Amino acid sequence: MHDKFVCDELLKHISEYVDGTLREDLCVQLEEHIHSCHNCEIVLNTLKKTIDLYQGTSDMERSLPDDVRSRLFARLDLDDFIEKS
Amino acid sequence: MSEIQTNKETFSIEALQAGDRAEFARMMDHFSTPIYRLGLKILGNEQDAEDILQETFIKAYRSIENFEGRSALSTWLYRIATNEALMLLRKRKPALDLVLEDDDEGDIEPHEIVDWCCLPEEEMLSTESRIFLEKAVQELSPSLQLVFLMRDVERLSIKETAQILEISESAVKVSLMRARLRLREELNHYFGVKLDIRKVRNA
Question: Which pLDDT tens digits describe chain B residue by residue (203 residues)?
């Protein structure tokens, strides 16, 4: 088991690391730690996967249903533009 | 991370403010899908999402002349939509605390280390799993939920998310970190069980 302090430190930066916005020196520290701490490696990978899954499901989503769109245009008195999609 | 696609489209603010209905219709077509989706994810049902969608554009139509262009049009629309969603959320769950900063409840430390990344894609993206993913987001506190939806689902930038929610960029980062770690923990339990089932089956 690794130093819990180090693992907790990692947790604080993990989100920015995933976004690619973490300061470079911290990135290096984090990557060094990950190499030697299997648990943190799993936390990092499952965090990335979590974000991927949410982005994946959102990409698969359909666009606005036609009936919802029609009612929106009608509500705004813009029925005459419904055809132009 | 990429900027949201909607930023690429431009609309004539002058035309919108002059009451150009065709331009408004074009703008509505452009933004209605992400706004409907956001409402759907926050409130969790289609009727509320539709109400949010309609109210957002009614308010936008009425107040477009006051739009000063200090933020992007998309930011302005998202802000209206978010306020509508929060109002509805207050109605639905009156006990909810809707403070958008200083969210510090619950711990986010990993409790158990399970590597579920190896589960097959079709299992992680099954209808059942997707329902679980959506439910997990709805159970986050509104401050975490909104930041997560804007950043990781709608893929808005930190800056735009901060502008929409009228909080600081550092507050966005903290909420995003908490939301992500909390969701990771939820998925850990959920997919951990799936992993156990597979192991038993394959034993």
Answer: 333 344 466 899 999 999 999 999 999 999 999 999 999 999 989 999 999 999 999 999 999 999 988 889 999 999 999 999 999 988 887 776 665 555 555 566 777 788 998 899 888 889 899 999 999 999 999 899 999 999 999 999 999 999 999 999 999 999 999 999 999 999 999 999 988 888 888 87
Which amino acid is residue A55, in one-letter code? Q
The domain segmentation of chain B, as residue ranges, is 5-92, 121-202
Q: Is B176 on the interface with A (CB under 8 A)?
A: yes
b/e per residue, A3-33, with b = 16+ CB within 10 A?
eeeebeebbebbbbbbbeebeeeeeebbeeb
Q: Which residue of B has its CA nearest to A39?
A: B113
B5-92: CATH topology: Rna Polymerase Sigma Factor; Chain: A (1.10.1740)
- In B, residues 14-43, which contact A (CB 8 Å cutoff)? 21-22, 24-26, 28-29, 32-33, 36-37
Provide CATH code, domain B121-202. Answer: 1.10.10.10
Residues of B with Cβ-Cβ distance to A78 under 8 angstroms: 21, 24-25, 28
Is the CB of residue B60 less than 8 Å from the CB of residue B32? no
